[in-house]
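Q: What changes when magnesium ion is included in the input?
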Amino acid sequence: MTSFSIHGVSVCGGIAIGHAHLVSNALLEVVHYQLPQHLIENEVKRFSDAVATVKVDLEHINASLRKNVPAEISAFIGTHLMMLADKSLSEVPKEIIRNEQCNAEWAVKLQMDDIVEQFEQIEDDYLRERKQDVIQVVERIIKVLLGHQSQLALEQQFSASHEERKLILVAHDISPADAIQFKQHQFAAFITDVGGVTSHTAILARSLNVPSIVALQRARDLINDGELIIVDGHVGVVVVSPSQEVLAEYRLRQEQWELEQQKLQLIKSTKAVTIDGTAIELHANIEVPEDVAAVEASGATGVGLYRTEFLFMNRRDMPNEDEQFVAYKAVAKAMKGAAVTIRTLDLGADKHMNPDTVVNCLNPALGLRAIRLCLAEPHIFMTQLRALLRASHYGNIKILVPMLCTLSELRQVKTMLERAKSSLRKENIPFDEHIALGGMIEIPAAAINAEAFANELDFLSIGTNDLIQYTLAIDRTDDSVAHLYNPLHPSVLKLIAMTIKAGAKLGKSVSVCGEMAGDAKFTRLLIGMGLRHLSMHPSHILSVKQQVLHSQISHLSQHARKVLGLSDLEKIEPLVAKFNQGG
Ligand code: PEP
Ligand code: MG
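A: The predicted holo structure follows.
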């Protein structure tokens, strides 16, 4: 096998060596062909064998699911096993093979289309949507028929050594809803053909804290299932079928990287204070309550952004007030009085509950997203506000509102929050009467008008991922323009500076919770610009803290002033690089 490398855009550093696990859209690969009579029974057997393999695979997944995975996920697997056992999927395709004299893939796909059509006639929303389960089960059968190895086969094949057991996820594209499910898998790395560095899929990949690369263009086509690959997350390169020499070199680099990570652990309990004594608050971003363990392990002193929309994904019903209350309370209690900033629902754009809820619109990032969606669906928002307030009795919860653009949106939020509070008072349900309300500054209009927002809010949090997307008119999920996405663009820096100034003027805390906060390349600049509060993935806390410990505020502010005085990105980049080297 000849070795070759593919270049993409790094999302998370580190080096992983392991075998490719291809996530395919098998349905697109199905072709139709006729078979001579004497091969028909062979084809029927091929189909039965594939069904048997999928059954073993699903049972294996079911048995290996961790105890703490959401009930929804184990229920999914149970449903899939039931569907697989149903005659309509396990027997009818055999009749089709015999009657139509066609290949097994085609037969099962024909039968799937038929079942899906029947599901679409059902009036009950919930039952109608089970068609997705049928499609997923059929995809599994087709994958086996097409010769893709099953998860179990891969694990068994690579059980020789520790390194060889490692699996690297290779996909064309992954939705944030799919990516959240990978949190329970032990993938050693994560690579995709498409995607921008701050897409929500990339953010989730980063939260898995494994080397990740996006925008590899044709990785899924070029890499075979089970092939040995190296993922170098530092530079965004994938080496396929490496030679022994290259493998040895990367093993060495991997050891060095792991050693550096271990060294960073030494500062885990050190307070994040600059040389001249200024404390910098380093908080963590989380997606699900289980992430709190990583927050504790990272030494973060609070949760600066809890993206609640992930509680709403991969399911067909909205989580009710009690379910949300349980999740928010769990985080509040686990953080033992430390700040827990919970962001209200930010669905829309690239984040959807499930494939059926994707709304077709030309510019989803500019559409009905986040607070706009919540204000358009007040019952959903009210349920969440009540759950948040109830949980606030058990810890130090702050509410953060995404995508604010106008003061009138903020006032509607406040009216609804008051209504939620008064309904709880009437029911004698305790909550924190003084719960802090903050707003995300992630639309340029909000940054320009930050003073007005600071006046009516308790705190501001800058969402640089969206602020950059909207300021530079660059879709954060589109890899074809990823090279233009730059946090150091002078206009972005000016909007951040305006927000910091507004907060300082009105005595309101300002933090950054976008990906920029977790990139140690920007720490000195952000502190120099006046930020004292950063929130990032737990895995980035220590590298950012290391920067803080070596910084001197007086020096940083002077330097940041120089950077802000420039209006040419080509001059800003080298100046920031020099600044980071202590220049
Ligand atoms: C941001 O936009 O920077 C942010 C933190 O929110 P999200 O990435 O979830 O859109
Ligand atoms: Mg955002």
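Observations recorded in class: The chain has three domains: 1-23+148-248, 25-146, 278-580.
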